Amino acid sequence: MAEPGRGSRRPPGFAGNVVTVARREARDAVTSRWFVLYTAAFAGLGLAVSFVSAAGSGGTGLSGYGRTTAGLVNLVLLVVPLMALTAGASSVASDRERGMLPYLLAQPVSRGEVLLGKYFGLALALAASMCLGLGVCAAVLAWKGHVTRPASLAWLLGLSTALALGMLSVGMLISVVARRASVAVGTAVFAWLVLVFVSDLGLMAGAITLRLRIEELFMLSLINPLQVFKMWSLYAADASLDVLGPAGLYATEELGRTLHAVFAGCLAAWAVVPMLAAAVVMSRRSPL
User: Where are the domains of the chain?
Assistant: First the structure.
């Protein structure tokens, strides 16, 4: 007689459910048009930045890794947050609008597992998109013989991924709160505009009108994840933060070697806190 339970499959646990949802989300993401368009645009603009950098220095053709990375920092500041915010914003809201979310939650899976699975799946798709985009740029540069400082692109990829994770969390929170996918995506684009443009102008205006001290200006800069990414990219490339003004000089003199930990903590907070808020909201709202 067979032992009880032998031959029967045990239901997947927490990790198994998260992985299953993540696989579905990653598969849907990489086969969607936004993934192809964003990846192609990121790679194409990266190569264009190389040509522009070389032309600006009086040379022709493709520039080296160091000059290209400096230009790609500004490109990442514009493209990667928009990618992550819109991807996250359309995840839960689109499933709710199509009626897929109630069906998914009817399975033996919790809301937290669905949320985490969607997050990890989209994070994997975003990382693949950035790897392909920067990889194409690096491959063409290496083919042309420009192989100076390849580690700078590796640093840029890592920091871009950290920025994407934070912006993806914000997008997931927007998606959980919004009822319709169009509203969620519109809110995500508005958040992108605020982070990219309004925050910089507001910081400068506040520094002038409120006469903020240098340490206060630096602390306000840490609130914006895009500013954190910019400062961390410069610091990781062994560039002086003096180019950012008095706040950069203050950070270098007062914090020194702890800057890596400070920047990492700021981006980690942007990845964790919005997801916790999204989990709380999703646990209390109807999936319909």
Answer: 16-284
DSSP string, 55-109: HHTT--S---HHHHHHHHHHHHHHHHHHHHHHHHHHHHHHHHHHTHHHHHHTSS-
Distance CA(133)–CA(128), nearest Å, equals 8
Quote the DSSP letter at residue 287.
-
Query: Would the pLDDT of 63 be above 50?
Result: no
**Residue 272 near residue 194, CB atoms below 8 Å:** no
Task: Check if the beta carbon of residue 230 is closer than 8 Å to that of residue 77.
Answer: yes
The helix (run of H) or strand (run of E) holding residue 24 is helix 14-30
| pTM of the complete model | 0.86
| Side-chain half-sphere CA neighbours of 210 within 13 A | 12
pLDDT 10s digits, 65-78: 456 677 788 889 98
